[in-house]
Write a structure and sequence with these properties.
The complex is a heterodimer. Chain A is mainly alpha-helical. Chain A contains four helices and no strands. In chain A, helix 2 runs parallel beside helix 4. Chain B is an all-alpha fold. Chain B starts with a helix and ends with a helix. Classes of the chains: A mainly alpha, B mainly alpha.
Chain lengths: 161, 437
Amino acid sequence: MDFFWKALDAVADKLKIIGALGLAGMTVLTCTDVVGRFFKHPVFGSVELVTFMGVMAVAASLPAVHLNKGHIGVELLFRFFSRRTRAVIDSITGVLSLILFGLLSWRMFDYAMEMRASGEVSMNLGFPEYMLVFVVAVCFGFFFLAILKGIRDSFVAARLK
Amino acid sequence: MNPTMLGIVGIVVMVLLFLTRMPVAYVMAMVGFLGFSMLTSLESGLNVLATDFYEVFSSYGLTTVPLFILMGQLAFSSGISRRLYETAYTYLGSTRGGLAIATVSACTAFGAVCGSSAATAATMATVGLPEMKRFSYADELATGSVASGGGLGMIMPPSVVLILYGILTEQSIGQLFVAGILPAIIVTVLFVLTILIWCTVAPDQGPKGEAFRWKARLKVLSELIETIAVFLLVMGGLFWGLFTPTEAAAVGVFGVVFVAVLRKQLSWNGLVEALAQTLMTSCMVMVLIAGAVVFGKFLAVTRIPFDIALWIGGFDLPPAIILLMVLLVYFLGGCFMDSLALVMLTVPIFYPLVMNLGYDPIWFGIIIVMVTEMGVISPPVGMNVYVVYGVARSISGNIKLESIFKGILPFMIAVLLGIILFIIFPQIILLLPKLMY
């Protein structure tokens, strides 16, 4: 089982690289478009491409941010609890998060399929948008697994004396 | 259960879940989804959940967030913050309390290229605290000035909180940015006065530092040029309508990279670290926005924002009193929650109410950012305090959290004075937007 969690860490790292490329791409493309516009040659469809890269950057970082506990939580009361109580609470909230994002991942796949069926494409480039939604759904799938790993870590911590 | 009652139950459940340290974004999304599903149908709730997350992720307007965060991260990685501090230090270090004054001035200057309060505090703590320790500054003054100065990064444009406020309320981000400049400068002046008064009362707490010759002072002045150039490029482009906010942010990133490469101060590792940090923060912010959007949909169905507006309107209180009550909620909320999360959570509730009272939306945006700024430095949560505490402990080891909170108190009074000033004279905030737009 350890192999599975290590593989998940590796996937999260690789996804982060894709995210970083998306972020760098957004910057380069936007600047190119600004300069091009100055010379009356803007990059066609740049707004769409920048948006797509932005989606990639954010969605690809989802598992890594969860694994690194990058989301904001209120620590106020939590620090007064014992380690075991904290681990138990973390397990419970982890399960709640798992259900929520499990549903979200499933619906995101559904949403991609709906878009595919309707043949929706982006306005300028005619890019089939369902592909992007599908990629987001896959990222949410890995995010789901990252939450599962968090729950497993909390269970382990709760069992430790 | 009627919608309003369900809305109140939802808010109570949300607050209880916050106390479990569950990420704020997840809690908002979950409560929003459950509440919306109960008031409509499970199918509608599931649809809202998926489409809202995708729409937030794929919003062109929000692409400005990661780019401005990247700009700040690169400014940090390439040592712009250190050079700003050194410039301020050369000019102000030799006066009593001068290092603390240099720190808050550098915080404001760094805020001009960085949109995050915690990032500004962390950066300036790393640079300023060792110097203040070297000159035997009291822990209270040293850490208090850094943590409070960090909050200036939130008001001085570009500011991530202002971007989100602008998107939530459909106000011009450019106008909000311009409106933030004067308040940031005035609060900086108030901080400087605070330090001067502090060091007059207790001179041993902020002794004089090194004095520099004018030749050295003129030489370091060139260090400021690049920051001013990047700031003018970004803000100028926005003011004159040359760039959209996203374009301004991308041009800002390019400007910072250009300066860093020119000075040979951006390593490959620095670039990779800046990208990685940006992704982490941006993803956190975007999930937070998506969670708040889902929660906002639920609130809209419950009609709670409108009911609150009607309910408070029924008391027939003067608008100023209602405004103060709203600001009190922001201040108390800021003591327990991160400023971004607080703004995302509360703006949908209070914005319609405050607009009904006839206040200006741009003015209100700046005021709530200032009030939440007080929150990020106040106990018990005060994110900046913990950031500075972490850095200070790595530098001097034995610093107490109480010392930082004690040191912050005079600066909080200064911010409060600033807020009162801007409430009495809203023209101060609205002057620049009116001149420019």
